[in-house]
Amino acid sequence: MSRRDFLSMPAPENYVAGLGRGATGFTTRSDLGPAREGPSEEQMKEMLAKRAAQLGTGAPTAYGVPEKKEEEKDEEEDRFQDPDNEVGLFSSGMNYDKDDDEADRIYQEVDEKMDKRRRARREAREQQERDDYEKNNPKIQLQFADLKRALGGVSEEEWAALPEVGDMTGKAKRAREARMANSRSYAVPDSVLQAASKSGELDTSISTDADGGMTTNLASIGAAQLSALTVRLDAASNTPSGAQTTTTSGTATTVDPKGYMTALDRKQASGEEINLEDLGKARLLLESAVKTNIHNGPGYVALARLEEMAGKTHTAKKVLQRGCELCPKSIAVWEESIRIHSQSSIHNAKIIAASAIKLIPKSIKLWQAAIDLEQTPAAKKKICRQALDYNPQSVELWKTLINLTESVSDAKLLFAKATETVPLSEELWISYARVSGPDEAPQILNRARKAIPTSWAIWIHACRLQEELGRLDTLDMIMSRAVKSLIKENSMIKREAWLEQAELAEAESCKGTAAAIVKATVGWGLDEDDDRRDVWMEDAKRSISNGRYETARAIIAHAVSHFPYSTTLRTTSANLEKHHGTTESLLSVLEHAVSACPSSESLWLMYAREMWQSDPQEARKIMGRSFEALPGNENLYIRAVQIEIDSGSFESARSFLQIARESAATDRIFMKSAVLERQLENYEEAIDLCNRGLQNWPGAWKLHAIKGQTYESLSKLKEAHETFNIGTRAAPKAPVLYILLARLQEKQGAVVKARSTLERGRQNVKNSPEILLEQVRLELRQNNLQQAQKIMAGALQEFPTSGKLWSERVLKLEQRTQRKPRALEAIKKVENDPQLFVVVARIFWSERRLDKAINWFTKAITLDSSIGDSYVYFFKFLQQHGTEEKLQELISTATMSEPKYGEIWQSVAKDPKNARKSVEEILKIAANLAE
Predict the structure, then answer these.
(1) What is the rounded CA–CA span in Å between residue 644 and residue 850?
(2) E strand or H helix at 248
(3) Phi–psi pair at 499, nearest 5 degrees
(4) Are 676 and 653 spatial neighbours (Cβ–Cβ below 8 Å)?
(5) CB neighbour list of residue 761: distance below 8 Å, 6 or more residues apart
(6) Do residues 59 and 45 make contact, with C-beta atoms less than 8 angstroms apart?
């Protein structure tokens, strides 16, 4: 059979010209019909698979061969090239055999192995590139990661203090609607127009109809204004602790939350505040909520309580009955039903409780309610045992059963069973130890510690148990073991929590336990490079403010053991013992302090002062030791002189001052020497000492002042005038010299010269409200009120925060009716000034509002205990309106505080005649001189 020519052969079945090049059937105008459709997908798969089988290769990927990896796809980008144009070993697809396939497979394995070797470096490089990109282009959540972590330390009080976000949606629309609603107009009656037309007229007639008009009570208006000012004055000071402050329209009011809630309870109980309309609305809402969701247990409870509040107890019972039927698993509904039925019938309540327990036997609350319904202890025990059969792990049920047991031995048995059943309840273990004897309790606590190794409360109770047994030497060892064990179990609580437990132990009279807790845990979490001393100081101050002095003492002792040469810690420890300890403990602390810090001048002075009050002879020895530790110290010499003066040994005081002038000569030493001679009325010697001191320190204004005052005591006014005048030129920045010179000139009758002196002092001393105050007082003494007010106005513009100037203005330049408003204005401008507080107290005193006056006097003393004038006026007030007990309490407070400042106080204390008087004597003299 002859072979046909290729071009004459018929086309294969389903042949489409150009199909390999992506062509499909097409139709031209010359065609009678559409072109033939190409083969289907199944036919193409069959044909390609048949050809692949003939060639020994796999079918193309698009028709069933599994897809290759991404790395292989990149290597076969040229697989669609023309076979006629292929080059190299595989230039013809017909020459591809099994050896070629094996070669390809071998090469592929080699490539994969090499790729695997380079993968780690490639992945590391890619990861580094991704990290660099993320670092340069961080996401939003990464930018706020640190702030999110910081939110973990926000307390509940700070969360509650966050302001609410206002609703800004539709703000413009609501404002527009509000304007439209307010723009409605109505017809105004003629009577309103007539009244408006006469509103500006002044009626000069007086109505004779006593019943037809209103009478203006000017006294009541004035009283109302005084009351308002009083409230505002109280608001300007600190609010009392435990009260809630709300601000409305610029004024503050103090609300007692406990009294407020008590008043609300009384109103609700009496039904005064129940609004029938609101009650109906609430009933409709709750009924709708119950009907919408019939299985909503809290809805039935709320509706029942509403009906009970309205007095419809029967309706409330029906509501709860329906709730129990529709919500049989709701504990709240059953509890409320038991409660409301127990008010009228205990029997019905027991039936309901039994039904509830049958449905929910695991509910501890329902069992507790059933126990409370029983009347006798035996019945309560029976129910409690039944409850424990269903809930053996309930600590509350075990506690209830144990509390119902009267016998101690039976209670121990129950505790043993309870701790065996619930071994992880530290409360049961601790209670078990408390009811046990001293020999059994440690064993019980050891078993508890093994059962709950993460419990710190068991260790603390073990420590307290040893303290109660008198074994104080074991406390530190127990707490150190506790810390090691808790650290091992990773259950160590924060340092602040340990300090709270120490304060709690001290509050329960376990001072040794508190000290042991502090010693073992106060340094937990603090590194050596931290400011541990400052942190411990703050901890001690916090404990002192809480009234836990033993805890504070332990904290300071621990800090001193780490910082033995810290003068600050030693002083804090001494102050703690002075105010909250004994004299023996104070002296012991000071002895250790001066031994550890011999170069501390303040500690030597404190030691000598405290020793002087108990043993003057020992105080002299202490001063001798201080001279050896700090030779030539000015303050130590002065303190030694003061001790000798207080004991009446003036010759010893003179010898000390003589030694000081020779070894540690200062202007202060010469000043103290002159003051001593002046007190002893050796005026010529005092003047000579001042002259000798001024030769070396001509600018020492105190020497000029003492010299001039000494001449004035001798009635040598000319010499005194010359001394003060020289002093103002030698020390032009000392305002006291100008004031003394002006007073002397006024005493001599030269008022114009006094004004000139004060004006000169005002120009030389730019920042001195004292000179301005003296100018005001000079004009007041000359009855020139208008000029005094003018000077005061300028002074307050220059020194708006000066308490002295405001006090003088309120008391001397204002009328009685205007004093309280001016005092309020002064307190707003000058924050926490004790002089102004005394002024306000004196205003209330003049109005005989004694409680208010006492409150403000107390505030002034609390604010600054070193100002003696506060004690003076308070003492004078208590002489008239106080008791002897209050007077003695004030005297003891003043004696402990040792005030030094205050105009009246200094005028009495620095008077040579009162040099050796006590604080109590000075207080009484100053109270007699006060206005």
Answers:
(1) 43
(2) strand 244-248
(3) -65, -35
(4) yes
(5) 728, 735, 737, 738, 739, 742, 768, 771
(6) yes
- Backbone phi and psi for residue 211, each to the nearest 5 degrees, phi listed first: -95, -15
pLDDT of amino acid 6:
66
Distance CA 685, CA 681 (A): 9
Instruction: Give the tens place of pLDDT for each residue, 87-145.
Output: 444 444 445 567 777 888 888 888 888 887 788 888 888 888 888 888 788 777 777 77
CB atoms within 10 A of CB 454: 14
User: Who contacts 294 (Cβ-Cβ below 8 Å, separation ≥6)?
Assistant: 326
C-alpha–C-alpha distance, residues 706 and 692, integer Å: 13
Question: Considering only CA atoms, which of 657, 705, 637 is closest in space to residue 906?
Answer: 705
| 181 burial level (CB within 10 Å; 0-12, 13-18, 19+) | exposed
Using the 8-state DSSP alphabet, how is residue 244 labeled?
Answer: E
List of long-range contacts for 682-691, beta carbons under 8 Å, 24+ apart:
683/710, 683/713, 683/714, 686/710, 687/711
DSSP 93-105: GGG--HHHHHHHH
- 609 burial type by CB count under 10 A (0-12 exposed, 13-18 middle, 19+ buried): middle
Q: How far is CA 166 from the centre of its chain?
A: 26
Query: Angle, nearest 10°, between helix axes 364-373 and 377-390?
Result: 160
Q: What angle do CA 714, 718, 724 make, to 5 degrees?
A: 90
**Tokens 């610029």 sit on residue:** 250
Question: What is the distance between the alpha carbons of residues 651 and 677, in angstroms, rounded to a whole number?
Answer: 11
Rg (CA), the chain: 48
Cβ atoms within 10 Å of 893's Cβ, excluding its own: 14
pLDDT band at 204 (very low <50, low <70, confident <90, very high): very low
**Cβ-count burial of 812 within 10 angstroms (0-12 exposed, 13-18 middle, 19+ buried)?**
middle
Q: What is the mean pLDDT of residues 612-633?
A: 83
Q: Token digits for 923? A: 């207080």
Q: What distance in Å separates the CA atoms of residue 282 and residue 279, rounded to the nearest whole number?
A: 5
Long-range pairs for 633-642: beta carbons < 8 A, 24 or more residues apart: 633/601, 633/664, 634/660, 634/664, 634/666, 634/668, 634/669, 635/601, 635/605, 636/601, 636/604, 636/605, 637/664, 637/669, 638/668, 638/669, 638/672, 639/605, 639/608, 639/609, 640/608, 641/672, 641/676
* Residues 6 or more apart whose Cβ sits within 8 Å of residue 827: 233, 236, 237, 833, 836, 840
Token pair in block for residue 260:
């407020």
Structure tokens that stand for 822 in this block: 């001016």
Task: Please write down the long-range contacts of 500-506, taking CB distance under 8 Å and 24 or more positions apart.
Answer: 501/456, 501/460, 502/548, 502/551, 502/554, 503/543, 503/546, 503/548, 503/551, 505/460, 505/464, 506/548, 506/550, 506/551
Query: From CA 496, how far away is CA 97, in angstroms rounded?
Result: 82
Exposed, middle or buried: residue 576 (CB in 10 Å: 0-12, 13-18, 19+)? buried
User: Is residue 708 within 8 Å of 725, Cβ to Cβ?
Assistant: no
Q: What is the DSSP letter of 914?
A: G
Look up the pTM and report it: 0.56
Average pLDDT over all residues of the chain: 80
